[in-house]
Specification:
The protein is 42% helix and 14% strand. It is of the alpha+beta class. The protein has one domain (15-190): NADH Oxidase, CATH 3.40.109. Strands 1-2-4-3 form a four-stranded antiparallel sheet. The longest helix has 21 residues, at 60-80. The chain is globular and about 55 Å long. The structure holds flavin mononucleotide. Flavin mononucleotide is lined by residues 16-17, 142-146, 168, 182.
């Protein structure tokens, strides 16, 4: 393959989760979002089920998503006595700090030709492709998986069926701060070689 491996390594290790509180209000071009989605579409997929499904929200769509997730949370949390005002305000405001958010779904193969876990892994790879692309453009992005994504109202809202899964909310925004650093514990402690 005609690619400098050091570029791939730098991108993979330099990719960071960057959160909505750090986004500037500068909108991200739709063309970059489209490139991220196209790159997501090149994720590995067992039996070519291509299970990733995305709903992109921007502009007024961000408010629609914010209204839906916050009102759904409020309804459930008030019913079971767990309502938390700070949590509610985050659900109202966080989407509005992003340039785009992408609801990430897994579409179950109608013939269930591969185990569900493989489809979830595949969608995870697709999200990673999007995050690597965002990082290459110096954009902030992160995958959010709050408990509320499991409320049943989300699937019909996102056009997902009963057997599909809503896996998370991918946030994207412009970022002008110092690129964050991270650490990992040594790989040697997580690997066993059998030679
Ligand atoms: C499947 C998955 C779910 C995640 N969900 C959340 C989340 O709900 N909230 C959050 O703050 N970060 C979430 N993250 C991002 C992690 O916090 C982040 O990857 C971790 O802090 C490591 O930082 P890095 O991505 O910059 O290397 C999630 C990451 C993955 C892979």
């Amino acid at each position: 393959m005609d690619i400098d491996s050091s570029v791939a390594t730098k991108l993979i290790r330099g990719r960071r989760s960057i959160f909505p509180r750090s986004y500037s209000q500068q909108p991200v071009a739709d063309s970059i979002i489209e490139e991220m989605l196209e790159n997501a579409n090149w994720a590995p997929t067992h039996k070519f089920t291509e299970p990733w499904r995305f709903v992109v929200f921007n502009g007024e769509g961000l408010k629609q998503f914010a209204d839906f997730q916050s009102s759904t949370y409020k309804k459930h949390a008030e019913a079971d006595g767990t309502f938390d005002e700070v949590r509610y305000q985050k659900l109202v405001n966080n989407p509005l700090k992003a340039s785009h958010i992408i609801a990430v779904g897994m579409k179950r193969d109608p013939e269930e030709r591969v185990p569900e876990i493989e489809e979830v892994i595949s969608v995870g790879c697709a999200v990673h492709n999007m995050q690597l692309t965002a990082a290459a453009y110096g954009l902030g992005s992160y995958l959010s998986t709050p408990k509320i994504i499991h409320y049943p109202e989300f699937k019909p809202f996102l056009g997902l069926g009963e057997n599909d899964q809503f896996l998370g909310i991918f946030y994207i925004g412009s970022f002008e701060g110092e690129w964050p650093k991270s650490t990992r514990k040594a790989i040697a402690n997580k690997v066993k070689w059998v030679s």
